[in-house]
Amino acid sequence: MDVATLTAAAVYLFTAYRYYVNVYKKRVIKKKWKKRRWWMLSIHRNRTRSSMDKQLAELLAEPSGEFDNFVRMSVNDFEYLLQKISPIVAKQDTDWRDAIPIKIRLAVTLRYLATGDSYKSLHHLFKISSQIISKIIPEVCSALNEVLKDLVKIPTTEDEWLSKAEGFSFPNCIGTLDGKHIMIVPPPHTASEYFNYKGHFSIVILALVDSDYCFMFVDIGCPGRISDGGVYNQSVLRQKIETNSINLPPPNSNTNLPYVFLADSAFALSTRIMKPFPGHHALGTPQRIFNQELSRSRVFVENTFGILSSKFRIFKSSILLDEVKASKVTMTCILLHNFLRKSIYSRNSYTPPGTVDSYVNGQLVQGGSWRLNNKETCITTLNAVPRRSTMNALETRVNFMNYIYERRNHSQA
Question: Which positions are tagged coiled coil (predicted)?
């Protein structure tokens, strides 16, 4: 390589370097640093610990139960939860500002679950920034899930299962099973995994309910494209039932019928899961009577989901959270539902008389009040998929049908 070539190469490299430096200098904006004009919005500057306490105190002073409606529970239950979650969500004050009180953190979360309001709406109500609220709600939900986790518990002894059977009219029924879609915003990078048959993105909840309208088992978070039966086949509940690790009672000695769970047509028929006979049956036929008896007991799970969505109105529209946080929030609502149903202070206000369907002599006389407030909900049914049943399952259903038909004729004789 001669001298001229080397010189030309050196000039080229130097020119390219100078061009790069000039472009880089132009791209870098040299702006003098300015002191921040504000630390928080002006509407937040008046927020003090006393002003936040005053906000709840005004609700407590109202004699018409405004506080109960605001957070969906009594003062006693609110204080109980406050005491339980305090060690988990407590924050320290700093030299810059005081920490948001735990009672306000709990009130924000309960109000969000009760109304489904946006973070921006809660921001104007509590004078807390939307960014902080987006951190408070998942944190408090995690704490509530931790302290209330024992309220959703499946029975593990024969005596516990037998006590569950006392509240159902269907013979040897120990629980009702159903699955629902919980609509969410489209999760990123999931393609059609969460896209259900109704054209929405959703997660699926599988629930087992007792005759007191409480959840005994829940499985939350399966992608929305899966049917009821598909969720059940992948759930821990199926394994527990098939292996009998939950100690289900042996068949009733008087009827020789097994103890079963009731479900809709989306589930596969088995010796432990009863579902209606398909098709239309004439009035008074054994199949029609069996379906009526099964539907009357299975309505417990329908009422339970109805109460849940009417009281926690976050389910009135798609949950604006990712699938993980949406599952966490849904679990919090379920735990709070059981907590309030079992509370001596909040049970009557949470589910007053007339909330659930009323039956007299097997006939529906009045629908539950939750149906009036539940015309718009984002908890929807799952798609039914036809499945071939085993001979043992078909025979078991026929035995139940014959027993129910004979019992009906004997009672009318």
Answer: none
- The partner residues of 207 in beta bridges, in order of sequence, read 178, 218
As a whole number, the mean pLDDT across the chain is 86
Cα distance between residue 130 and residue 122, in whole Å: 8
Rounded to whole angstroms, the Cα distance separating 294 from 286 reads: 12
Where does the pLDDT of residue 273 fall: very low under 50, low under 70, confident under 90, or very high at 90 and above?
A: very high
Tell me how far apart the alpha carbons of residues 75 and 79 are, in angstroms, rounded to a whole number: 6
Model's pTM, two decimal places? 0.86
Angle 268-270-275 from CA coordinates, rounded to 5°? 60
3-class secondary structure, 177:
strand
DSSP line for 357-396: -EEETTEEEE--GGGTT-SS-SEEEPPP---PPPHHHHHH
- According to the model, what pLDDT value does residue 138 have? 96
Distance CA 43, CA 64 (A): 29
Contact 289, 404 (CB under 8 A): yes
DSSP notation for 278-321: SS---TT-HHHHHHHHHHHHHHHHHHHHHHHHHHSGGGGS-B-S
Contact indicator for 371, 306 with CB cutoff of 8 Å: yes
CA distances from 187 to 147, 201, 252 (A): 29, 8, 47
Under a CB-based contact definition with an 8 Å cutoff, are residues 217 and 312 in contact?
A: no
Q: Which of 203, 142, 181 is nearest to 327 (CA)?
A: 203
Q: What is the pLDDT of residues 249-267, one digit of tens each?
A: 999 888 889 999 999 888 8
